[in-house]
């Protein structure tokens, strides 16, 4: 038994999970944290309030220079980092704002991953280097106005016309849509669902922005309108047919969310802890009341458990043993618990909790979207229900 003195207790890492990270992993986390501190944190509440990110192209290039766009992919200008490093980056980005993490997730895990995993050599060479550098922005069109959780029922259609493909349909709730240079669009064909790489300058393509959101306001969300969009034969992703294509991409992005949601939780927890130490009622700081302490302790517990789960899943991903059901488990738990942490933080801040002067209500509202996109809580419950019981309850 060792008798050395343990290091001091860190309220921001109560279980000492940092011990499980390598120096390289901590360095990646630090570099993303610094970019966020300088380039995002001072402005993001204002962006959220105005529903826009100033100089989003410049910011995307800075993210590219840092190497976080498609950072877990190999080759074609991508950084080829580990799943753990990718996860840590997502956590830092989302500690600033879920909109920022969404930009990076959609770029790297949805649009770039689709091309990297299922594209032709020409598609990879054309799109991946500029996307990794942040010079080209991508979006991923799966959801439609009438089709969300059941993407197999999509109505967007691609038909052959000679050698060409012609796409007609609508996509809805598409992150980065109006600012994208390239859209990965999924459509029904005579050969089943297929993916298409669509330059957004193609005639017939338009992407009006969706307004009036009260969540993910520092993120561009759009409709994609595909009106007889004519594409050459080589616009199709050649290596995949069927739902496996989009689902494989969602699996990647969900992994980032397992980590990212914890960033929103961490920021809210830190805000609540600091506020509770300063706010005085009945003659003492509210952090001295047992009810407030119970809240802070429960928040810390869930944050710690979620962090351990995220790290465990990342190690499995790096080892090549991570199953999609396990990603669902992480997404379901960590988003649900992070949202609960934000809601509880909101109560600790009292009336101030509803103000954008503090990050809490912004994170809380953002996580309402994160709870729904990339598979709703209910869908992940059904996936796990099926995995555990062997019975499908989807229909
Ligand atoms: C801000 C934001 C950004 C997004 N970005 C993108 C993007 O970039 N690309 C993209 O393709 N999509 C994107 N989405 C869409 C998102 O993935 C969908 O909203 C999500 O898949 C749910 O689909 P839906 O909204 O149509 O809800 P629905 O599928 O209509 O579900 C409504 C409710 O019914 C429940 N439900 C449905 N079926 C069942 C069932 N069998 N059993 C039990 N309950 C069920 C759902 O869980 C949910 O609670 C985004 C969404 C938001 C809010």
What attributes characterize this protein structure?
single chain; 395 residues; alpha+beta; Butyryl-Coa Dehydrogenase, subunit A, domain 1; Butyryl-CoA Dehydrogenase, subunit A, domain 2; Butyryl-CoA Dehydrogenase, subunit A, domain 3; 3-stranded mixed β-sheet; 11 helices; binds flavin-adenine dinucleotide
Q: Layout of SSEs?
A:
Layout: H1 23-39, H2 44-50, H3 56-66, H4 83-96, H5 98-118, H6 121-132, E1 138-141, E2 157-161, E3 164-175, E4 182-189, E5 192-199, E6 205-206, E7 221-231, H7 244-278, E8 280-281, E9 284-285, H8 290-319, H9 324-348, H10 360-372, H11 377-389
Parallel strand pairs: 1-4
Antiparallel strand pairs: 2-3, 3-7, 4-5, 6-7, 8-9
Helix pairs in contact: 1-3, 1-4, 4-5, 4-7, 5-6, 5-7, 7-8, 7-9, 7-10, 8-9, 9-10, 9-11
The protein binds flavin-adenine dinucleotide (FAD).
Flavin-adenine dinucleotide binds next to strand 1, strand 3, helix 10 and helix 11.
Task: Walk me through what this model shows.
This protein folds into three domains: 17-132, Acyl-CoA dehydrogenase/oxidase, N-terminal domain (Butyryl-Coa Dehydrogenase, subunit A, domain 1), CATH 1.10.540.10; 138-241, Butyryl-CoA Dehydrogenase, subunit A, domain 2 (Beta Barrel); 245-389, Butyryl-CoA Dehydrogenase, subunit A, domain 3, CATH 1.20.140.10. With 395 residues, the protein is α+β, with helices and mostly antiparallel strands. Helix 7 (244-278) runs parallel beside helix 9 (324-348). A hairpin with a 2-residue loop joins strand 2 and strand 3. Helix content is 50%, strand content 14%. The protein has a four-stranded antiparallel β-sheet with strand order 2-3-7-6, with helices on one face. A three-stranded mixed β-sheet has the order 1-4-5, with helices on one face. A two-stranded antiparallel sheet has the order 8-9.
């Amino acid at each position: 038994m060792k008798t050395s003195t343990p290091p001091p207790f860190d309220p921001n890492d109560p279980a000492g999970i940092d011990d499980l990270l390598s120096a390289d992993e901590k360095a990646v986390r630090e570099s993303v944290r610094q970019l966020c501190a300088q380039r995002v944190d001072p402005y993001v509440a204002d962006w959220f309030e105005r529903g826009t990110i100033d100089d989003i192209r410049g910011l995307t290039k800075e993210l590219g220079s840092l190497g976080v766009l498609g950072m877990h992919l190999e080759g074609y200008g991508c950084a080829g980092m580990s799943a753990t490093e990718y996860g840590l980056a997502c956590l830092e980005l989302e500690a600033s704002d879920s909109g920022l993490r969404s930009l990076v997730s959609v770029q790297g895990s949805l649009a770039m991953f689709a091309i990297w995993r299922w594209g032709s050599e020409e598609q990879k060479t054309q799109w991946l280097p500029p996307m990794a550098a942040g010079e080209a922005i991508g979006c991923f069109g799966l959801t439609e106005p009438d089709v969300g959780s059941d993407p197999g029922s999509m109505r967007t259609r691609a038909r052959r016309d000679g050698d060409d493909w012609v796409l007609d349909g609508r996509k809805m709730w598409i992150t980065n849509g109006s600012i994208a240079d390239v859209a990965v669009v999924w459509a029904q064909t005579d050969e089943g669902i297929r993916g298409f790489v669509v330059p957004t300058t193609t005639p017939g393509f338009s992407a009006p922005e969706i307004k009036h959101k009260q969540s993910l306001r520092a993120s561009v969300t759009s409709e994609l309108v595909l009106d007889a969009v004519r594409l050459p034969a080589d616009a199709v992703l050649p290596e995949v047919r069927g739902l496996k294509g989009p689902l494989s991409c969602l699996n990647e992005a969900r992994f980032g969310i397992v980590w990212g949601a914890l960033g929103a939780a961490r920021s809210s927890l830190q805000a609540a802890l600091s506020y509770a130490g300063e706010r005085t009622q009945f003659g003492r700081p509210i952090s001295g009341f047992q009810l407030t302490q119970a809240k802070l302790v429960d928040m810390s517990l869930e944050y710690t458990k979620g962090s351990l789960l995220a790290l465990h899943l990342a190690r499995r991903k790096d080892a090549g043993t991570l199953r999609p059901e396990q990603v669902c488990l992480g997404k379901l738990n960590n988003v649900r618990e992070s949202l609960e942490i934000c809601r509880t933080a909101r109560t600790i801040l009292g009336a101030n909790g509803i103000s954008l002067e503090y990050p809490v209500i912004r994170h809380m509202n953002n996580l309402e979207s994160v709870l729904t996109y990339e598979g709703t809580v209910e869908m992940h419950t059904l996936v796990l229900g099926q995995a555990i019981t062997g019975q499908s309850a989807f229909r």
